[in-house]
Amino acid sequence: MFVMELTYTAPIEAVEEEMDAHIAWLDGYYAAGVFLASGRKVPRDGGVILAGGVSRAEIEKISAEDPFTVAGVCAYRITEFIATKTSSDLTTVRENPVA
Questions:
Q1: pTM of the predicted model, to two decimals?
Q2: Tell me: the pLDDT tens digits for 54-80?
Q3: Buried (b) or exposed (e) across 13-42, using 16+ Cβ within 10 A?
Q4: Which value, in Å, is the radius of gyration of the alpha carbons in the chain?
């Protein structure tokens, strides 16, 4: 599983110009079952996406395709973790670590 942390690198007005395209990009990966949750950080200096079911290489490719990245208005920090315990709603993404 991955925590994808976005930090805006441009004024919020430039971010807003790309928002519709960013939302369409999010919707595509929700439909594909990759994205599990997303939203704005508080204060609003970026956002967070929880993702699963793909490799590190795939998640880096996905982040590079984000219209925010393409437009140069954000930078990503991607953290991989093993979700060994989850709520019942997230049992499909629960992982068993390899010893």
A1: 0.90
A2: 999 999 999 999 999 999 999 999 999
A3: eebeebeeebeebbeebeeeebbbebeeee
A4: 14
